[in-house]
Amino acid sequence: MKNTLRILSLVLAALLMLTACGKVETPPAGTGDADTVEYGTIPQVSLKFATEPYPDHTIPYIAVSQGWFEDVGITLGQVDSIDADKLPSVMVAGSYDFASGAPSLFIPSMRQANFTTFCFSNLFLGYSIMAPAGTKTYGDFVAEGQKPAEAIVSVMAQMKGQTFTYPSESAIKPFIDLCLEKGGLTMDDFKSEVLDDSNGVALMLAGRAQFKVGGVPATATLTSNGFIPILSSADIASAAEASVDSVEIRSILHNGWTTTKEFAANNHDTILRLASVCFRMNQYVHDNPAEAAAIHVDYVNSIAGTSFTKEEVEGLYASVLPLYTFDMQKDWMENTSDPLYWEYEIGSTIKMYEEQGMFNAGEFTPADIVSANTVYAELKDLRAQADANLAQLADAEGQAAELKAKAEYQYSIFNYLDAATFSAQALELMGA
């Protein structure tokens, strides 16, 4: 017993000596190992990132190109563009650590892996039913005096007996199902051609299909060739209610960054740092859309096979792909009267799959697929801690002043975890 106490005393003394030398025993983010970490340093991790090949999911290229992941200790050893319908399976296989994709994309695969979307980036309002010029639009029928519900029925009636093409992507399915439901149609009312976007566009250009739903690149290509949107996500979402029972809310998508619950649990601090990069990206695009588009345009064109101009990409940010900053997402996370509150779109989509027999009632809840709300709340708390710490560091000198400067920089890039940590370390050195 005496020997045991002696050993413990020696260990304690050694730890105190390390602390006095400006070092603490801290488990690095992303690992369960305890390594000695110097004050003012961020543990380094290497991750693999997958994105969909569309404008809304290639926006992270801006963060990659500017070195923003490295600023928070993250090296991206691999960044790949993966077709949306394959993204859940490659994540299930463990080929990537996190991915850019709508949470609703991963819901059908929840039995194969416990996915969680840990931060939101932009709102996707881009799905539209495209048709040849001259086809009457939702706006045309509303202008004629029809009520919104009547206008949707009138728009959809034009599809009877025609050919409708769309890709097999699960993320598109809720929008199509909603259009049919609100329009009083079934799949038997028209001929379906399930094709990837490029082949679907070719079918439209050849006149062998009259209507199409697809991603933003397909919509942009058809628009440049004279086709028009006759019913959009925004048209339907305008009638959405603040409830998981609102079917209209399914027409839009909260895009974000998704991983598995296992990875999130084992890499908690890394998740917070990744979220900070996402919020930094959102703020930059919101404040500097022209500069962001100049960085983004060539990459998205090379990945998606599009020919967007910088001006067109900038226009997407302002229309169908609005990015929401950290402060702008407050209502998403806290305001239950806002139709965009995080639970509603996800909960409504889950209900759709329950109605279709994919899941049992109550098998999954919005909290099973989204953790962005808890990550957001933790970052808010860390920001408050950093605010309180920094307010006490006005007279910091020497190493404490250096730590204060590092904390302020991390704070400015939304990395509130290390802003709080570095400022606390500075206070410790000052004996506060």
List key phrases describing it.
three-stranded parallel sheet; D-Maltodextrin-Binding Protein, domain 2; alpha/beta; five-stranded mixed sheet; 12 strands; 3 domains
Describe the fold and architecture:
With 432 residues, this protein is α/β, with parallel strands linked by helices. It folds into three domains: 1-35, no CATH class; 45-125 and 252-370, D-Maltodextrin-Binding Protein, domain 2; 128-249, Periplasmic binding protein-like II (D-Maltodextrin-Binding Protein, domain 2). Helix content is 49%, strand content 15%. It has 21 helices and twelve strands. The chain has helices at residues 2-20, 55-58, 60-65, 87-92, 103-106, 138-143, 148-157, 173-183, 197-205, 216-224, 233-237, 261-266, 268-287, 289-304, 310-318, 330-334, 342-355, 366-369, 372-391, 398-412, 416-429, and strands at residues 23-26, 35-38, 45-51, 74-81, 98-101, 115-124, 128-131, 163-166, 191-194, 211-212, 228-232, 253-260. Strand 1 and strand 2 (35-38) form a beta hairpin. Helix 13 (268-287) packs across helix 14, helix 14 crosses helix 15 (310-318) and helix 19 runs parallel beside helix 21 (416-429). The model is unreliable at 1-36 (pLDDT under 50).
